[in-house]
């Protein structure tokens, strides 16, 4: 399955006063990284639909393990691996590395969903499109 990775610098605004990453930033990076991976493949799960609704990719399960803390200004590599593509769901593993040291590993499950038009607040899970399935099944690495 597909793997995508990129590097980013750990900034002061992302740390607590002791210089340790404020943990919600990892989940923000997971969302941003997954979005970048999908957009790099031409997939926009949040696109407007012809019927006036729009897509979404909400999280339905998330588990994180913390191993080490990087230091301020470290270069952190975020690796995203597609683990499973179900009928309506997608499972990903996120790993954050500083050099060869594993900092955090997270597993998340998301559902492919749509917001119905007409202002209905609820999302509805739908089948993962075959075009998306094909791109994510590819044995390829991103940047």
Explained architecture:
The structure is a single chain. With 143 residues, the protein is α+β, with helices and mostly antiparallel strands. It has a single domain, classed as Hotdog Thioesterase (Thiol Ester Dehydrase, Chain A). It is 17% helix and 39% strand. It has two helices and eight strands, in the order βαβββββββα. The chain has helices spanning 24-40, 130-137; strands at residues 3-9, 54-56, 59-66, 75-85, 89-98, 101-111, 113-115, 123-125. It has a five-stranded antiparallel beta sheet. Strand 5 and strand 6 (101-111) form a beta hairpin. The protein is globular, with a radius of gyration of 16 Å. The relative contact order is 0.26. The model has no long low-confidence stretch (mean pLDDT 90).
